[in-house]
Amino acid sequence: MQLTKLNLMYDELLQEDSIGIISYRKPGEYFHGSMLYDFDELILIIGEGTKPVRSIQHLFMNGLRCQVLYATLSCLKKWIIAGEQANIIDYVLEGRIVWERDDRVRLLRQEIVDFNDPLREQKRFHEFSRFLVNYVHGKRAVREGRIIDAYQSVLKALDHWASIELIERGIYPKIHLWVQVQPLDRTIDKLYNELTLSTETLEQRVELVLLACEFSVMSKMEECSSPLFRILGSRREPWSINELINHPELKNLQLDLTVVLRKLVYRSLIRETAAGDFRDRGQNRELRYSLI
User: Fold this and answer.
1) Is the distance from CB of 98 to CB of 104 less than 8 angstroms?
2) Bridge partners, residue 70, by sequence
3) Are 67 and 51 in contact (CB under 8 A)?
């Protein structure tokens, strides 16, 4: 796609490694809200190189106040899985592709829209790992009497639970998560209201939701961790934590893999073994993980 007279204003924004430009506008609105931060236009420049993965400019272009964001393609793919920079993912989905060097920007958008495996499976595993971390933090905070901390952790856990429910329906979780969830899953919506609006004590509300988490989401542990189970079953030798963290299928998912592994071991879903000397440190032996 070549630059035309209609989009020559974007030409000077291009960098050597640029592969696409996306423009996001909401015409006719005086205040554009959180999506546009009251700018007239948001411009996303997508690159393929190893320069800074994200940078920002505020420019006045053709009478418009513009925010220009620079991000690499690899960075966008990480954000899609990790749910970070959710506004920018919305720009990718809803913005206008002004220019692209090849089809990679269009294909990235289509991948999110189709939301098939492996993206769907990776996204679910990421959300489950984040759910598990916040669930564990919430349980610990309750035991230690830190009820407000527990409340915050449980609230985050519910967000990740809601994302899992959407993913299992083939829906990519967007920035307006609860708007997506409410018409589809009354159970998770009711729990959210119980946690935030109930007249019971804060501690009772937190404990109620933690109990629901224990019985509802934990039952999906093996299914949600399917990428990890597939890797563990790909060879006969047990895996070290370092090998798993750096595995090509997992290293970009931004997982707290330690919490996931310990919970899977505790639930007897995977096997833990201590084998071999660890870096010749006498009797110290490295823990490794495999399928049962």
Assistant:
1) no
2) 45, 55
3) no
> Bigger pLDDT: 15 or 146?
146
Strand 64-72 relative to strand 41-47, pairing: parallel
Q: Which residues make Cβ contacts (< 8 Å) with residue 162, sequence separation at least 6?
A: 173, 177, 178, 181, 185, 188, 192
| Helical packing angle, 147-168 and 119-143, nearest 10° | 160
CB 115 within 8 A of CB 171: yes
Answering whether pTM is above 0.90, one says no
Backbone dihedral angles phi then psi of residue 156, each to the nearest 5 degrees: -65, -40
Nearest to 202 by CA among 159, 141, 137: 141
Task: Give residue-wise pLDDT tens across range 92-115.
Answer: 999 999 999 999 999 999 999 999
Question: Which residue in 46, 68, 66 sits closest to 57, CA to CA?
Answer: 68
Domains and CATH numbers, the chain: 5-114 (3.30.460.10), 118-221 (1.20.120.330), 225-292 (1.10.10.10)
Task: Compute CA distances 187 → 74, 200, 210, whole Å.
Answer: 36, 19, 14
**Using CA atoms, how far apart are residues 287 and 241, in angstroms rounded to an integer?**
8
Give me the long-range contacts of 240-248 (CB less than 8 A, separation at least 24): 240/286, 240/287, 240/288, 240/289, 241/287, 241/289, 244/289
Long-range contacts at 169-178 (CB < 8 A, ≥ 24 apart): 170/115, 170/120, 171/115, 172/112, 172/113, 172/115, 172/123, 173/83, 173/123, 173/127, 174/86, 174/89, 174/90, 174/93, 175/86, 175/87, 175/89, 175/90
* pLDDT above 80 for 35: no
